[in-house]
Specification:
- By secondary structure, this protein is an alpha/beta fold.
- It has a single domain, classed as TIM Barrel, CATH 3.20.20.370.
- 35% of the residues lie in helices and 23% in strands.
- It is built from eight helices and 18 strands.
- The strands form five sheets. Strands 1, 5, 6, 10, 15 and 18 form a six-stranded parallel β-sheet that branches.
- Helix 6 packs parallel to helix 7.
- Bound molecules: zinc ion.
- Zinc ion binds next to loops.
């Protein structure tokens, strides 16, 4: 199998962990603020329009609050909706120093599930932890709530291969990919560095070309086409250019023989073979 699964984290604008607070704040141009959702909502519309026009599938990992704050919830119709916490909570406490009890974690995970069901009518199957902070305890609770896959880990691509794995908790893991660029430096399949102006599109095209076998999970944030963490709002021309860059990557992958699928469909394929 040579599959590309494009994923979008729909979460509060330029989110950042705050020491001593479980929920995330937003930050812009170096200033930490209360949570904002405007860029997240507008960016989701831009990316969803692009996906629809190109007939590209995608999986959205939605933070409950950001999903509820969408100006037009129908914008995500037809895309797979999975969960990304409720208020972008740090579930392991690694970034906030706040260690949560099991019942607190269960509450967050359950409310995030319920929000997807109530806003979209779809039953979520996948989970991605905010900040990608995951551990065996959180995974066990995610599985217990009924999720059948997770996509919070990052794994190295070895000789062009990165396969999903079946976790001891009894669910699939679809890790994000880590490779090396032409200078031998680490590159992750999260498009963060591109949106922050630190990596050209060509670096990700190269990563796609080097990927030969397995599932290449690529990721972005809906707000990141609208504003940058360092530079703030981008303007409509830059937003359109960054959405086009994503379209070129996905188009390049499809033309190179990748199958483009939402993660739930990849999970169905894997379950057929088990
Ligand atoms: Zn997030």
């Amino acid at each position: 199998m040579r599959i590309l699964a494009f994923t979008i984290d729909l979460d509060r604008d330029c989110n950042t962990a705050v020491r001593g607070e479980t929920a995330a704040a937003s930050r812009s141009c170096g200033v930490t603020t209360d949570p904002c959702h405007d860029a997240s909502s507008q960016g989701m519309e831009v990316i969803a329009d692009m996906l629809r026009s190109m007939a590209f599938p995608a999986t959205i990992f939605a933070e409950g609050d950001s999903l509820r704050m969408l100006a037009d919830p129908s914008v995500v119709k037809g895309l797979e909706i999975a969960c990304h916490g409720m208020e972008h909570e740090d579930l392991t406490g690694e970034s906030t120093g706040m260690l949560l009890e099991n019942d607190q974690l269960e509450d967050i995970i359950s409310r995030s599930w319920d929000t997807v069901v109530s806003v979209t009518g779809d039953v979520p199957r996948g989970f991605r932890a905010p900040y990608l902070n995951i551990d065996p305890r959180v995974l066990a609770l995610v599985k217990e709530r009924g999720f059948t896959y997770d996509s919070s880990m990052t794994e190295k691509v070895l000789d062009g291969v990165l396969m999903p794995k079946f976790l001891p908790q009894g669910m699939w893991e679809f890790p994000l990919a880590r490779d090396t660029d032409s200078d031998g430096k680490v590159i992750d399949s999260y498009l963060w560095a591109m949106h922050e102006g630190r990596r050209p599109e060509s670096d990700y095209m190269r990563m796609i070309d080097r990927f030969q076998e397995g599932v290449l999970v690529m990721a972005t944030h809906s707000w990141h086409v609208m504003e940058g963490v360092r530079e703030g709002p981008k303007g409509s021309k830059q937003t359109a250019e960054e959405a086009d860059a994503i379209a070129r990557m996905l188009g390049h992958a499809r033309d190179s023989g990748f199958e483009l699928l939402p993660l739930a469909a990849v999970e169905d394929l894997l379950n057929e073979d088990r």
